[in-house]
Design goal:
Blueprint lengths: L16 E3 L2 E3 L6 E3 L22 E3 L3 E2 L6 E2 L4 E2 L3 E2 L6 E5 L3 E5 L4 E3 L3
Antiparallel strand pairs: 1-2, 2-3, 4-7, 4-11, 5-6, 8-9, 9-10
Pfam families: YjdM, Zn_Ribbon_YjdM
InterPro entries: YjdM, YjdM_C, YjdM_N
Protein name: Zinc ribbon domain-containing protein YjdM
Length: 111
C-alpha cells in the first residue's frame, strides 16, 4: 500500500498511510490532504478566500456547545484546516482544544 502513496513532504518518509481524506506520516506525525479540493471556495466573513494553514481571528463571542466555555472576540486561531460540512473550519483553540468553526464567524488575519 505504501508504494502508491506519496512520501511525507516534511521528512521524506516512505511509510505514509491514509486515514479518511488525510495522509499521515508515522515518523514525524505530519498530516496533509491526499487530494486538493478546489471545487469549493471557503470565504471568511468579509469575503477573503481561506486556505489550509491560514490564521484567522474570531469576530464574535462564540459559546462552546456542551460546556460553559466561550471563545472570545479577537481570539487568533492558527493553522486552520478547511473541511466540508456546516462547520467548515477545523482548528485547535488555545485553552479549549480541537473544535469546528463556521467561516462566517472568522476574519482572515494579516500574517
Amino acid at each position: 500500500m505504501t508504494d502508491t502513496l506519496p512520501p511525507c513532504p516534511d521528512c521524506g518518509s516512505a511509510f505514509t498511510y491514509q486515514v479518511d481524506a488525510l495522509l499521515n506520516c508515522p515518523e514525524c506525525g505530519h498530516e496533509w490532504q491526499a487530494v486538493e479540493e478546489t471545487a469549493t471556495e471557503i470565504r471568511d466573513s468579509v469575503g477573503n478566500l481561506l486556505a489550509d494553514g491560514d490564521t484567522v481571528t474570531v469576530i464574535k463571542d462564540l459559546k462552546v456547545k456542551g460546556s460553559s466555555a466561550v471563545v472570545k472576540v479577537g481570539t487568533k486561531v492558527r493553522n486552520i484546516r478547511l473541511v466540508g460540512g456546516d462547520h467548515d473550519i477545523d482548528c485547535k483553540l488555545p485553552g479549549i482544544g480541537q473544535m469546528g468553526l463556521k467561516s462566517q464567524f472568522v476574519k482572515k488575519a494579516a500574517d
